[in-house]
Amino acid sequence: MTPFDPTITEAEQDQFRELAAHLPKIWESIQSDPSWEHTSVIVPSLSVNQEELAKVQGASFYEERLLFSLIRLRNPRARVIYVTSQPIHSDIIDYYLQLLVGVPASHARQRLLLVCMFDASPKPLTQKILERPRVLERLQRWIGDTTRSYLTVYNSTVLERKLAVALGVPLNALDPELLWLGTKSGCKRVFREAGIPCAPGFENLRTEDDVINALLQMKEDNPGLRRAVVKLDESFSGEGNGIFRYPEPFPTEPESQKRAIQDALLGLQWAAPETYDAYMRKFREMGGIVEEFLEAREVRSPSVQMRVYPGGQAQLVSSHDQILGGSTGQVYLGCRFPADDSYRGEIQAAAFRVGEVLSNYGVVSRFGIDFLVLREQDTDPWTIAAVEINLRMGGTTPPFLALEFLTGGHLDGDTGLFLAGPGQPKYYYATDNLRSPAYRGLLPEDFMEILMLHGIHFKHSTDTGVLFFMIGALSQFGKLGVTCVGNSRAEADRFYEQTVAVLDSETGAAAPARGRLYPIFDGGMSRME
């Protein structure tokens, strides 16, 4: 195994930019000719802080979330190379290929190449590839014509830039030089440039004193403030967010105020096990922000997914109401599509402004913007605040790709509704956190047998039903993902409840199991049972 050198030379950077210049032509060809011959290299590497990633149960199986990209095999002249750290069970691949309407599974499989590193170590998949020169050589041979090929990734870092250069294909993602735009501090700058309100606070912090001084200033600016959020610049899924509670009563003397905040800071609350010393070490390494914890009688957490095409055009992809949970209420657990009618148009318009700013910086590919919407009374207008930008695929990406994969429909940019068949709007409930200890030990073939026995599947005759993902995580973690598609919100919820009932019955799980997520909604909000 070759030691990995993360540095990139000036010549490599020039080559990366030269390759990127070819991407608009490739994309234009794919868009204009549905049968254009090309190769997609898919590397679903979670190239993020591995210490933070370790907090996510079954994170190694999140590489399966991009299997919906096999939709590209609908083009009979398209080839897909899908790389993973660990093998994907053949039953899982067959499960997706048989859903490609109008394409024989055998024909699609001939154009699909699965490449496995057989390496379960806690390193990004992209790094594992770069450490294996023979794998790189084989990938280069299999890719063939690099003028008709591109690289798709979960998120873009210096690792993915080096891989694109090594393979000689353009990266369908942003230049890692722009990653700062997606940090918690960078988001604040983008929101200001886009003219979008966000929670008051301070960014570009680095030390414990920075955090303390920010908390002091926020309390001075807003004496009624009860809580604040401390965030690592490069955290994700809410795992790096710490909830701070101001001591009550709050001292009046400046010196006493500082000591009180310093003491209270030791009581930061995180969703996952964490220690104060470890968190502050990461804060010094990454930097971060402190902002007000926005509160109201009713608070929702919608998000909007956007895409900037290689030509620079920003386009709406989808909107969702996110379901957050965990001990801090900050961890992403699932979503409902589309976002509520009462604020969907407003957050989509705000997202477009963000997309225009990012496009001007040169950002390419998918990203999401998280919002908070708040109100005190049902008759009040919603107050909207932007929270963060995820310059990568996120938890809401796989379920929407699933909807496209299954129905072949399209999003109406004016309404934000997804229309399939004869203009039928589609709705879904999705989570990658359907889990129970009783599900552990289920192999993919066991799971497929349960699906067939109970008829839990997607029906193309109605374009409704259930699609599963992260099936490989069942055996070890008792966890998988589901996307439940219906012709109404109620139907999507019902499919989910039926799925849970079947799995619980087949495995003897107690219902409801502790920590399980159920789609119980009140005015669009969710709660944990």
Give the secondary structure arrangement, pairings included:
Blueprint: H1 10-20, H2 23-32, E1 38-43, H3 50-53, E2 78-84, H4 90-97, H5 105-110, E3 112-116, H6 125-130, H7 133-143, E4 149-153, H8 158-167, H9 184-194, E5 201-205, H10 208-221, E6 227-232, E7 241-245, H11 254-265, H12 276-286, E8 288-292, E9 298-300, E10 302-308, E11 314-325, E12 331-337, H13 341-361, E13 365-375, E14 383-390, H14 397-407, E15 410-411, E16 418-420, E17 424-435, H15 444-454, E18 458-459, E19 464-469, H16 474-477, E20 479-486, H17 489-507, E21 521-522, E22 525-526
Helix pairs in contact: 1-8, 9-13, 10-11
Structural class: alpha+beta
- Report on the biggest sheet: 12 strands, antiparallel
How many structural domains are formed by the residues?
4
CATH class of the largest domain: Alpha Beta
Question: How many strands in all?
Answer: 22
Helical content class = 25-40%
Q: What spatial form do the alpha-carbon principal axes imply?
A: globular
How many DSSP H or I helices? 17
Q: What ranges have pLDDT less than 50 throughout 5 or more consecutive residues?
A: 513-529
Q: Using the coordinates shown, work out and report the CATH topology of the largest domain.
A: Rossmann fold
Nearest-angstrom radius of gyration? 23 Å
N-to-C terminal Cα separation, in Å?
A: 48 Å
CATH architecture descriptor of the largest domain? 3-Layer(aba) Sandwich
Instruction: Give the amount of beta strand, in percent.
Output: 15-25%
User: Could you tell me the mean pLDDT?
Assistant: 90
